[in-house]
Every structure is written in C-alpha cells, then in structure tokens.
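In this section we walk through a basic example: taking a raw amino acid sequence and producing a predicted 3D structure, encoded as discrete structure tokens. The instruction is simple. Fold the sequence below.
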Amino acid sequence: MSVARVTEVISSSSISFEDAVKQGIERANKTLKNVQGAWVKDQKVVVKDGAITEYRATLKITFVLVD
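The resulting token sequence is shown next.
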C-alpha cells in the first residue's frame, strides 16, 4: 500500500501558462521525491500598461511518500 500527499505550488513565467506549469513541476521535482502528477488549480496573469507581463499557475502536485 502506498500513501500520497498533495502540495500546492505557485509558479510563474513570462512566456506562457504552459511554461509556468512546466517550471513548477521541474522545481517540485528538485525538492519532492516520487512526483506522480499535477493538476492546474488556477491560472492568473499580471498586466502592466495593457500588456501581459507574467503568467501564473497554481498547481496541486501529488507525490508518493517513501517508507
């Protein structure tokens, strides 16, 4: 039997939502072991002078705990 845990990560990118998600998962993998999946909980943009300057993604990262 395995036990999983879910943690929330907020990541950002100046390129796209997809890049923000990718960076969030890559960063989570540096700290967490056994990352199994993620779902995008929320998306947000930062706007300055009428232009999008940053894409933000809130992720729920699922990882399996090690015995």
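Looking at the output, two observations stand out. The mean pLDDT is 96. DSSP finds one helix and three strands in the chain. In the next section we compare this with other chains.
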